[in-house]
């Protein structure tokens, strides 16, 4: 087969172009820090990197969801802590107010203090987060979940369903409790009423009953009136004990969820570290190998330039030109 001068020339130019392309490709890898900059660089690694990237994005979304869940549950825990303190303060006053040596003025003073605690507890039940959303309103976060109406007392008008958040692939949890489950409920092991009547579940009704009883004069009252007063105070005391136990149960559940979020965050961090390592193995450049290849490609390119230069000085090329 006879090779024309033009064919030899084209081969040399193509050799230079190929060497230059290989050299520039390695140079791009070194400058970007990535072995796979285009799918054509390594189709298999590129496709696996796409799938892994989607997993990393999902992990980031769950991490954000857990952050929001942690904030919501922490706000709830703070409100429940305040409610616990308020109920305990009310219990102390109820016990003290039941003392037979107190005067009507003393009992009236205790009633006033209980009214203050009631208002404080109502404010805690209508707590809002930093964005103005009501914590214990379920999904009705735009309106106060508890209303206080003269004659009927405090009632719950919030949502019946707790807000849920998916915090990991296989885990969805409640990130807020409804007000009815906190301030209008008691646990299954609550203290029963001695006469077998239904236990009071509304903590505000409990306080209203005691406040009303404390305002009834007892100094010169007959035995029936005094007994009615004592029964009311005893019932409120049992009710507050039940209500406190319920609030503490909710707090315990919130604490467990916060602990679980910490565990999920730790697992998520470990998973992210593994995926980052896997992604690095797939697409990141091995600098030692790349630098060696860069040097080799540069040497090959220089050799191609020299070969082309030497051949261009041959008589056939000179005559052809």
From TrEMBL:
Ranges of residues in domain Flagellin N-terminal: 4-141
Keyword Secreted: yes
InterPro entries recorded: Flagell_FlgL, Flagellin, Flagellin_N
UniProt entry keywords in alphabetical sequence: Bacterial flagellum, Cell projection, Cilium, Flagellum, Secreted
Major localisation: other
Family annotation (Pfam families): Flagellin_N
SUPFAM superfamilies listed in its UniProt record: Phase 1 flagellin (SSF64518)
Domain of life where this protein originates: Bacteria
Compartment(s) where it occurs, according to its Swiss-Prot or TrEMBL record: Bacterial flagellum; Secreted
Family listed: Belongs to the bacterial flagellin family.
Protein name: Flagellar hook protein FlgL
Organism: Pantoea rwandensis
